[in-house]
Design brief:
Length: 218
Amino acid sequence: MTQKISHQPLAHRFQHLLQVIGGERFLQMRGLNNDLPFYICEFRASEAFDMQLMQGNLINSLANLQVTCLGGRGVKVLEINLYDLCIELLKAREGSSDGSRLWDEILAVESDVDKDNLLELLQNVLGIEDYLIPAIGERLHEADFDVLFLTGIGEVFPYIRSHNVLNNLQSTAKDKPTVMFFPGEYRHSLEQGASLALFDRLHDDTYYRAFNIYETKR
């Protein structure tokens, strides 16, 4: 039996991603059958550091391609790291009436607040609909890009859940392909449908409207 591409060595996966993302079928969003151009790139949590390196190499390699449908230039990738974006949003927002920053206040209370209360605080101040998605939309509007890479998924768990991000991105990031790099497994079954299993253990609820990029035709 042929080994799944997602279980093959990183070098093999890199070549698959380069050929798929750099291909005209992917870039022109063909064959979606009215589905959203959302793709999950799964990887083992233990490969997180190697995947960061591969993502950088992939972005550089895509930029050096000559793609006909892009006028002979390379593929421009916009990477949004959700963890970095959350830190940026917290640092930019004012907290108390004295003008202090919300980030400084969170750092000050972190050691004294239990995990559940800290989780609730972060979920309140980093609301997906009110803050995160508008910030992503602003970056999409300002950037000249062909493909969006969403990274930092594991780092923002559990105060930001990947399926919530994808659900809320449906109206914001539907004009260009989006690839979410997911530390876990995107599982499919007839009985349970599709689900995102973060770190291969935690089911991040069901999400049906994304493709496994390793099952995508080149």
